[in-house]
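To: structure subgroup
Subject: Chain for Friday's discussion

All,

I'm putting the inputs and outputs inline so they're searchable in the archive.
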Amino acid sequence: MPRFRTEAARDSLLRRVRRQRLKYITILPSLITILNGVCGFAAIVLAGKGTAPRLGQFTGEPGTPFVVFGGRSCLAMAGYMVLLAMIADMLDGRVARMSQSTSSFGGQLDSLCDIVSFGVAPAFLMLKVLEYKLAGSTGLNPGLASLLHRFIWLVAAAYISCTAIRLARFNVENEQDESAHMSFMGLPSPAAAGVIVSLVIFHQETLPELYTKNTQAYEICENAIMYILPFVVLGIAVLMVSRIRYPHILNQYIRGKKPFAHFIRALLFLGLIIWSRQAALVLIFCGFAASGFARWFYYKLLGSRLAIRREIKAPNVVE
């Protein structure tokens, strides 16, 4: 008899759970979120268009390792699709809060699309760029080339893993209140993806122009970007899962009434974007990622110095 009561209670619980189905969703924010995921998927498709470098497409000279699609670098186009996904990611939450239609469904859908657009797509893009670089390196030892390929794969896997952890932690700790969205704990995944795609876009669109003017400068810049890119990706992966606080740019510096100095900074950024879109993207995203770490390191160092001074002054206070 007790067994029957237990099974009956279990069946009753299962029936109640089955009845708790999703009945209503907000259409517009969900569509914008889906656009985010579609842009991430498009970035992956564009990044995988070429299987081998097609040389001389931009300059007419042999030896230029760029893959093109539709007259433009498909890797740069993939980067722009990730940037478009960032705009959709920024809009969906804003629209949901303005319409007071935030929901757990929207938060979960947003994270699923973010892992594609800001986790898988940037990692795959970085992987393809570095694979093309290794494929174009002649005279490289086969054993060293195999080791470098494995290292690049590990870097991409570490980045995707940290992005997933970052998004899962955000879902657990996130609050629906607008006042709780003034800063982020850890580097936001869209900003981390922006660091990668800005470097790729700069590599694909600005360096070909430099190649026509100064071949030696092109080789220095191209090698510098390729060699530091895996370590930059590892660094931002660590920053995503760290507890370093980053400001919400829109809420803290743009929205509402702000000091006149903020307006001057905004004009300078707009001027930089008009002058060189590719360089502006690199400075904005890399500067934002580095600013949080620099601020944390400064206050950490300042706090240690203050603690040492207190310890030195403590005996005099006791006397």
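Points worth raising on Friday:
The beta strands are 54-55, 65-66, 68-69, 72-73, 183-185, 245-247.
The chain has a mean pLDDT of 78.

D.
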